[in-house]
Amino acid sequence: xxxxNFSICxxxxxxxxxxxxxxxxxxxxxxxxxxxxxxxCPEEGWSESTVELFLNELAVMDSNNFLxxxxxxxxxxxxxxxxxARRHYRLIHGIGRSGDIAAVxxxxxxxxxxxxxxxxxxxxxxxxxxxxxxxxxFVVPMATGMSxxxxxxxxxxRRPQAPYIIWPRIDQKSCFxxxxxxxxxxxxxxxxxxxxxxxxxxxAVEKKIEELGAENILCVHSTTSCFAPRVPDRLEELAKMCxxxxxxxxxxxxxxxxxxxxxxxxxxxxxxxxIDAFVQSLDKNFMVPVGGAIIAGFNESFIQEISRMYxxxxxxxxxxxxxxxxxxxxxxxxxxxxxxxxxxxAHLAQELQKLAEAHGERLLHTPHNPISLAMxxxxxxxxxxxxxxxLGSMLFTxxxxxxxxxxxxNEQVVSGHTFKGFMSHSEAYPCPYxxxxxxxxxxxxxxxxxxxxxxxxxxxxxxxxxxxxxxxxM
Amino acid sequence: xxxxNFSICxxxxxxxxxxxxxxxxxxxxxxxxxxxxxxxCPEEGWSESTVELFLNELAVMDSNNFLxxxxxxxxxxxxxxxxxARRHYRLIHGIGRSGDIAAVxxxxxxxxxxxxxxxxxxxxxxxxxxxxxxxxxFVVPMATGMSxxxxxxxxxxRRPQAPYIIWPRIDQKSCFxxxxxxxxxxxxxxxxxxxxxxxxxxxAVEKKIEELGAENILCVHSTTSCFAPRVPDRLEELAKMCxxxxxxxxxxxxxxxxxxxxxxxxxxxxxxxxIDAFVQSLDKNFMVPVGGAIIAGFNESFIQEISRMYxxxxxxxxxxxxxxxxxxxxxxxxxxxxxxxxxxxAHLAQELQKLAEAHGERLLHTPHNPISLAMxxxxxxxxxxxxxxxLGSMLFTxxxxxxxxxxxxNEQVVSGHTFKGFMSHSEAYPCPYxxxxxxxxxxxxxxxxxxxxxxxxxxxxxxxxxxxxxxxxM
Amino acid sequence: xxxxNFSICxxxxxxxxxxxxxxxxxxxxxxxxxxxxxxxCPEEGWSESTVELFLNELAVMDSNNFLxxxxxxxxxxxxxxxxxARRHYRLIHGIGRSGDIAAVxxxxxxxxxxxxxxxxxxxxxxxxxxxxxxxxxFVVPMATGMSxxxxxxxxxxRRPQAPYIIWPRIDQKSCFxxxxxxxxxxxxxxxxxxxxxxxxxxxAVEKKIEELGAENILCVHSTTSCFAPRVPDRLEELAKMCxxxxxxxxxxxxxxxxxxxxxxxxxxxxxxxxIDAFVQSLDKNFMVPVGGAIIAGFNESFIQEISRMYxxxxxxxxxxxxxxxxxxxxxxxxxxxxxxxxxxxAHLAQELQKLAEAHGERLLHTPHNPISLAMxxxxxxxxxxxxxxxLGSMLFTxxxxxxxxxxxxNEQVVSGHTFKGFMSHSEAYPCPYxxxxxxxxxxxxxxxxxxxxxxxxxxxxxxxxxxxxxxxxM
Amino acid sequence: xxxxNFSICxxxxxxxxxxxxxxxxxxxxxxxxxxxxxxxCPEEGWSESTVELFLNELAVMDSNNFLxxxxxxxxxxxxxxxxxARRHYRLIHGIGRSGDIAAVxxxxxxxxxxxxxxxxxxxxxxxxxxxxxxxxxFVVPMATGMSxxxxxxxxxxRRPQAPYIIWPRIDQKSCFxxxxxxxxxxxxxxxxxxxxxxxxxxxAVEKKIEELGAENILCVHSTTSCFAPRVPDRLEELAKMCxxxxxxxxxxxxxxxxxxxxxxxxxxxxxxxxIDAFVQSLDKNFMVPVGGAIIAGFNESFIQEISRMYxxxxxxxxxxxxxxxxxxxxxxxxxxxxxxxxxxxAHLAQELQKLAEAHGERLLHTPHNPISLAMxxxxxxxxxxxxxxxLGSMLFTxxxxxxxxxxxxNEQVVSGHTFKGFMSHSEAYPCPYxxxxxxxxxxxxxxxxxxxxxxxxxxxxxxxxxxxxxxxxM
Lengths: 474, 474, 474, 474
What we know:
Binding site for substrate (chains A, B, C, D): 97-98, 105, 313
EC number (chains A, B, C, D): 2.9.1.2
Largest interface: A-B, 116 and 116 residues
Site (May act as a substrate filter by repelling compounds with a negatively charged alpha-carboxylate) (chains A, B, C, D): 74
Helix content of chain A: 40-55%
Shape of chain A: globular
Largest sheet of chain A: 7 strands, mixed
Strand content of chain A: 5-15%
Number of strands of chain A: 16
Oligomer: homotetramer
Cofactor (chains A, B, C, D): pyridoxal 5'-phosphate
Structural class of chain A: alpha/beta
Function (chains A, B, C, D): Converts O-phosphoseryl-tRNA(Sec) to selenocysteinyl-tRNA(Sec) required for selenoprotein biosynthesis.
Radius of gyration of chain A: 25 Å
Strand order of the largest sheet of chain A: 2-10-9-8-7-3-4
């Protein structure tokens, strides 16, 4: 309420109580003021009541909520269902304009603020998480793959004659398809085995660049976060190579914000070489629903070029989710989550190692991968060829989710390209294995239960328990 | 509750009351059964309680809501904020898989059902709205522009050598940018003036096809819904031409579902010629928040090809919104809204005509445009060149939204292409004008208030009232 | 947001859009200002967004929502469950203080405002509904019966020696128990039969007063709204009698606000005689959940005396419900509901009459009862004694709720008092009957379905259809 | 969804995923089954999704949510505002019937279940908290004071000739008014000073019983939880005395559930003597909004008698709040809160003691009071008479809530009875003091902030800082 209304309230209930109430309101306003002024994620999280107060204030500024509005356009933010209106806090107009997903909408000052502030807060968090020199970013309501596509499409306008993308192999369909969808030809660089780890084959990259000619290469498309035993690409070296050859460099940092190592790689790569944009998932890094990504970079005008490439308005839903989440957690809360994740990684590694030893397997040695772990299934496979895939379906029915079983010898065709040894990032990895990851939000209970159930499954398989129907892998 | 629990309830409260309660539950289940069996929008809308019951049931089937789940993957549907969880009904996993936006997710049977059912219901509604022979469609969490881009990118794989898109001019940035973003060269076909209407120049299209060679043309990109005095493209003729030359044909039907005329054009076009896909906005046709579109077509395998082109998972939020909305409205409720819109169009036309006459202007004669109307501003312009743009900002500050003022002589560069007479779909339209549309959800009050305020503004401008600061057009 | 924050917003998005947003906010504030100033129900209902904005503003003023509060008391408005906090809009402190349910709480300026405003708005609506001279009222979170008890307990302090309450019979348990619970002896005055109607036996009342001595009578306890064929008491005459003998007069107006006739009786009674308080249900008159009542009267100090009699704080939930409802409906919306109810009464009467005739029964002639109707079941009873009660359970299982079947010859002991002919307000009503009422919120569909199902039941009973298990009456 | 619907789902998405979803549903059902069967608070708290699933299931069983219902009664559970419907989970019918607040409603099987289950769970928690032999209880939507009134009114029917209630003094208005409202004469027994503690004067009670005659005494009305330096009444001795003289005994256990000591006193009192009922607040013990109480006892038929005394239906809102809260916390969570409260009591005592010493005051020695503490303000008062009350208002404006300042020499008339030394439970306590309590939900931060601010206030008062306007005490 404004000061006039507070004055009237003083006639209804005791003025000293109203004054205290009005003062209390000011303390919420003060938090909002700081946010607007600084555009940073507050160190301490907001209460739900401040968050909702703020969202309601934003909604009030959108024309669909004007009490005296009359609409004779083709898009007036009308909502047929009150369930729908409510779940979007009556913020209906989405973000952006036909020209630019980051542009301000005349009909929706509130939604426009939401968009600008979210991008600003997210930029702050990218810095907090380790990429201190990032200069610009925006949230886009598409998952990582489609966001990579958008980056590639933007680059096409800069390098219209370049059909190839250099891509150190990572066996995840959507990032491969991101290139195909954009209309480019991925040039797959097989990884090299160093100890248990699969790492970037820098020589092969260099050789391929020379072979194809730098001018024919749209960009190098590297990856940080990935399933062990693959580890993050050697970003520094790739970035230097890109700088040297004047080739753009796009980094798929899908769930890398949660890891200081991945973020450090990007920071370093940009410092010593060239990174044009790095793309990350909202859901995997901020515990929000699937469907948004952040496109970030070190050159504001290039990031703007990408944002202008998105034709038309877009859903504000992912922005709203990440805004609510970051305001509620605060930077402090987010850092706490990162710290817990790291600790749980160590714990998971320890427990997996113990379990591996007990079953005649071993935890693969992949120190460069800060999130994902892999335990060999060699001994299991030696018992029975089917046992490995059987383990996958047993874990599925026992509600262990995310524990990925990788058998040997898979072959898969993705968009016309044949991948031997698919899922293992390598044509012939030495052994089958099982992945488990310590991702943000994981709890002690997750680890304990997973290890317990895994143990049971392995024991039961050893006894050649009655076979279960296969249900597919995740 | 299951039957076992109902039995226990009978020991707590009178069994005849419990039996009635259990019977009442069955009537909700019955509605859900019909939906699942038929995959059609129920004729009569559901109560909010049935809708929420259903969504809760779906959520229970997703692994992030399993009571005994333990997650060791990198994407487990964890949610940090309970505000966020709640507003998505705890459906967190989004839709699709890396391979295909329409694919089923092992971790999320509920979200997968939501996705399949939404697509099925939307298909039903497209038929109800007039495109009876549509065979396949899917909801995509991107607005119309980006969805068109996805269609063009898909076509590239079929016609890798074709750089051109034939495009009868419509002055709306995002559909132009959709082609640019996809990496194609739009070939703009200027419209012809027939009476007051701007219509497709069929001869020019034909000539251009011959000039460029059909094999070099990716597709024809036509438009139905648009601002008067432009009218929907001559779809039948274009579709025939496409069939003749074996050129794909993509239709931008942005807000055309709400008009039986637009839908009839598509139905006819597909019947007599060739339409590969038609794309429409969710928000503009179904009164949901901005950010979703429907890609539909007559050949299931081509539509699937497009859905497989989307790399990675996607936000379920637009699907959820349209599902809630259609279940709540029912097919009957939606048809009622369409009928009311049509009636309000006639009413708006009548009122605008009266107003025009009172101010020495005229309602442009655009019978082929079923949604948008235009009133000349010739007389206003003759008073003062500035008066026309001034009218725009006056309407803005008076909370008349969507009433677009179109002055003469605008020139704008969009992605490198210069449009003379921008906003008017024509290099030199005879007069400046004002647009008003009767879009779905418009009310009698909207019309009354708009006419009243417009009248005041025109009067005040005539008196050469004190100038207002310009605030920009919408 | 306050003006300072709006200024900062102008640096983030265009200032003209922000200014419009800030203006839009003022229009909500303006509605709130009117409410605070006038304390009346707004004529036009508020949008949900204004209602929620207002409730959030109130909540912010309560100490449990102060951002810097520290609590070391025994009652700090802490909430363990966020579901609970949310459903009460974080208004946790309830209403009133130990001394007075209407008192202001230092810890909860917002809840105190809510309480005062609700009482003020409800007073306004009582006037709108017909009791123009009512001077004071308050909402109490107890249903009608317990609220009557509170009135009687208050009167005891004024008339400590008076053990009797004169009570024209109405067969509804809670109002009888209200007297018993308060510790008084109800003196039941049987009704007289006039035509089909059961009306107050004024002579018997007068005689009883003389017999017991006015000084021994705590009060007369009369009733307006009731089931036909009983009709509202003769309030004018009773009020005059009370004035003459200096006996307090409490009116049970349970669901009478919805009927202009009942309200008129109270207004007239107070004008020509004496009415000390009238009590009405919130749920039955305002379509809110069960559990609240309004205690109102014409003498402010007596009503205050009652409110001071309630020991301790009380739930704000019923006040919140009626506040939300009345702000959403507006006085205009409420009057519209009253009008529709009246029309539906005429419709129901007509349909019941037709049905009665078709089945050899008749609609009892009870013109003084404005809400409830009764249809004889004489012909049904003549077929079979059991058929009448069977009809009751048939209607129950067919989901016709509220259609009460009243057989002859019921006898029931309530708190030690034996009522012959219980349910029929009379020791020997001439015929069994069925009640149906046109209460606020009833729809055309309710009437149509009820008549249809009733018709089927009567037909099936006539055919001596296979007997159904009895499930009890409502 | 029922099994039929799950089967249909298997045709839409992979059957193994659906089967897993259906299995997940069963695990929720299983929790509900246990609850229904055992009627006990689950040891481990439920997730919000199970809680809401359960509430939705209950709502579906109420007639107002029947899809085919038609209503022609005067109370059909119609709701005008969807905001209101939603916040009550569409449970509209309240609890109880005219005859009995614990009775089952034919129209509302779901609400009836809610009522029964809540009472059952609350009974379980009373046992868990220490009164192991409690046999019956019910939740009533009235705060403690009015609930005590109801107990006294019920006793009147058993002892119609007894006008007196023996009441060891406790300076809290609502419990005094509870007796006045019920129409009885409180006989105040002053407390005796033992060390710093104010304790029950057992001799004076005994003497008064003999003086008035046991048959003239309605009951003894004792108190457990109270502000220090008063301590809980000597329940064992009072209970024995009541047994000896055959006098009913009602215990005001307002916020005593949270203290094992208070609960132990009741358990012991009932074991060795007589306790007819004990009454406690919902909000103060379970962190729910104000407005509900629990009436409990050791004799089922007497507790039933009280529940039958409540005339009419009642609000289900307090029952719903406590049900949600206890299901969410689980018995384990509740016990954890009790443990934390106890620890925080020790911490608060320690901190207050340090502070007291630093300011020349002392922490009063009140070991029998397990919740509330008192710190002398003698030294402060010696500086200035006004300083003590000034401290109160200073704390209020600094948002320290619940810290009660008790000056000497207050005199107050409550319902005609003059209390000397009001607020201090004694006509002449030796020194003024300040109260602070460690109540359920208190946090380390509450204590830290309170001590810090208190310290500042005391320092500033010592410096005879500029006087502040008094704002009243809490």
